[in-house]
Amino acid sequence: MVGELFVGHKRWLQRWQSAHPSARLLIGLWLSALICLALLGYPIFGTLLLALYVTLGSLATLILTEKPPKIGRVVLGAPSNRILSQIAVLLGVMALTSLSISGYVPLWSEALAIFRGIGRAYFSAALLDDPEAALSGFGALFVIPTVLLLLLRARWQELGVGRSHRTGQIALLWCALPLIALLVMLWARAITPTAALRSLLTNALYAFGAEFLFRGALQSRLLRLLSPRWALLLQALLFGLWHVPRLTAQLDGNLPMALALGIAQHGALGLALGVMALRTRAIWAGTALAGLLGALGLLSYSLR
Q1: pLDDT tens digit string along 190-215?
Q2: Interatomic CA distance for residues 49 and 14, integer angstroms
Q3: For a surface tag, which of 6, 115, 257, 281 has the fewest beta carbons within 10 Å of its beta carbon?
Q4: Which residues contact 173 (CB under 8 A, 6 or more apart)?
């Protein structure tokens, strides 16, 4: 019995040592965040369910889709510098959106005020929940980054908004459970059809912007410099950290718990969304999933 346990332990150790460094880092960070949440008294059952959902969904996505064509890596020099400058701009946009949650940011807040004005003037509250905030988020996450990337000679067709591969199948795979939950809420009259439609439209707008920023723009830039595994890991970690300021505010300033939640929950979800974008060659399936999760109150992109 002891010998069998020793052999089994040795096999698991060999598998761990042979795993890709990015996989070991991902698992280590996620387990550390989970332990931190447990020690801080946060219920982790939902986080474990999310991890199971992400793992099974990602495996199914890999089975149902084909490997994407290899992306040509940029060489050192001007092409590499251009990609690095694009990544720097995207990181700057992420930082500014996080800072704008807690207060005024010179120039950036003025730019977002333009989109707030558009939302106030041209969109009704009957169509969108808080049109000003929704248009502000759309401008911050999509319009401004798009303009800056195009000025830096990024190619529009590389940003995840073109033709896709098996998007319908993958969207149905991932959205089945959230959609059933939404239908149950409608059946139980926990939410009215009008409110559900308004929430779906609002969160679809936010989700599209976030998917463009992190998967369409950032992940596609990272793939020009790194392997797919490292690109997926980095964008997922940044996606999780991007949520930390909002989580900190929601948790009354509890930064350690917010950081652990950002990695364990939003980082895991960001990894799944990255896999979807990589295998479908577009952000549409991820936008559908994130929009549904937002409508259910499980994900928030609001930049208010």
Answers
A1: 888 998 899 999 999 999 999 999 99
A2: 27
A3: 6
A4: 57, 60, 61, 64
